[in-house]
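Standup notes
- DV: blocked on the single-chain target, sequence here:
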Amino acid sequence: MKDRVAAAAVPEEPAAKGPFWEKPIGLQDMFDVGLRSSYVSSYYAAPLLTRDPDEGGLVVNTSSFGAGCYMHGPAYGRPAVRTGCTGPDRSWSAPSWARRSAWSTSTVRRRRRTGRDWATRSRTTARSSTEFGQGGAMDVQDLVECRAIEELKYRYMRAVDTKDWELLASTLEPDVTAEYGDRLSFAGAAELVGTLSRIMTDDTITVHRLHQPEIELDGDTATGIWALTDRVIRKKDRVMIEGASIYRDGYRRGAGGAWRIARTAYERLYESEVSLDDVPTFTLTADRFADA
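- DV (later): unblocked, structure below
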């Protein structure tokens, strides 16, 4: 939904002393509904996030320079400069210990609580793209590298499904190791690509979908955990296989800055098989790999 801001007279209540979640939520109604959802969600989340000083939580918004100033409380700050003011505004009305966990920032960062304050780790140590509560800070370049690794994995999977073996080889380190459940294991890119290209003929259709990447950077190496769902159709055998797995990868960055897969393995969560003869209405109405 596109954000909108309407002109409004600002009452005194938004800036009055006290937690914003204890004030009438109707204060937000002075603004157009397009900006309301973020404020309402944090309104109901704040009591949970501030319940325990040792647990807490995190609200992250991205916006402009308005994130650095306090203006009339969060009911005004959210629509006035979109998400920008909500970090300072909400932390201003929160308990003192909770102000450290109320953010508004132009980049996503991770912090970990150590003792009495929040501390960031050095760039030289490992950084995760997902577990902000257990590690150090991420900067913009870290996010760029995480995105590059995600795109690498997407290319790898697209190459398998489209049987583009040259593209697949380009995603792999020459000494890559691979284990696909209990059935297939490879040592080296040449063995992996050669075997897959031989067994995955045009008789086989595969569809792999990757989800929920968890990338952790450590200099020129990285690790990744992915959720995978897949479907395989073997046309001559009249069989369709479906399953889900957890991928655990290792990545290496070369001298030119390009990431490649150094190791990959998945553990099967489940796998099912059905005969297409039991689904009499099943018909392939499109097939890229059909015989010409």
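- Follow-up: Residues 43 and 202 are 55 Å apart (CA to CA).
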